[in-house]
Design brief:
The protein contains three helices and seven strands. The chain is an alpha+beta fold and 150 residues long. It is elongated.
Length: 150
């Protein structure tokens, strides 16, 4: 056994209010089909042009859970990073996201609660014309320093 200390994401003491991250993603038809296959979700609003044309959206939209997945993935990878535990998610969907549409997610640390060991992160999703598509507030428990993790 070694005394190596493996660090993953940022610990709460390393995070500052105002810290930010920007991630731009597009959700492909392949991503949507993988989600639908995994969850057995057969909502025609996500895949059928003939159906979607008859709705206010006029074309298929991205399942909201895929947008939430991008948010949680960015938190797990970057801010605070690997080892983080999401303890609460509140997402407000403002406008639909369409297949192959670029979405820029802006993350900002808005509160650090040292007593509860929780960081609150606001997220805003924008399209390429700066229209707001979603906003979210995520409460995250950052990782702690662990010893001897292989």
């Amino acid at each position: 056994m070694t005394d190596d200390v493996h660090r993953y994401g940022k610990q709460i003491e390393e995070i500052k209010e105002g810290e930010s991250l920007t991630v731009t993603e597009t959700i492909s038809q392949r991503d949507i089909l993988l989600y639908l296959g995994l969850t057995n979700d057969n909502n025609p609003l996500y895949t059928q042009m003939a159906y979607a044309k008859q709705t206010e959206y006029q074309k298929p939209i991205v399942p909201p859970v895929l947008l939430t997945g991008i948010i949680t993935s960015a938190i797990s990878k970057h801010l605070p990073g690997p080892g983080s535990e999401i303890v609460n998610i509140d997402v407000n969907l403002i406008s639909p996201v369409y297949h192959e549409q670029y979405v820029t997610f802006n993350f900002e640390v808005i509160k650090i609660d040292l007593m509860k060991e929780v960081v609150t992160i606001s997220v805003e999703g924008m399209d390429d014309e700066d229209n707001r598509l979603l906003d979210a507030v995520i409460m995250v428990r950052p990782p702690k320093m662990l010893a001897n993790v292989e």
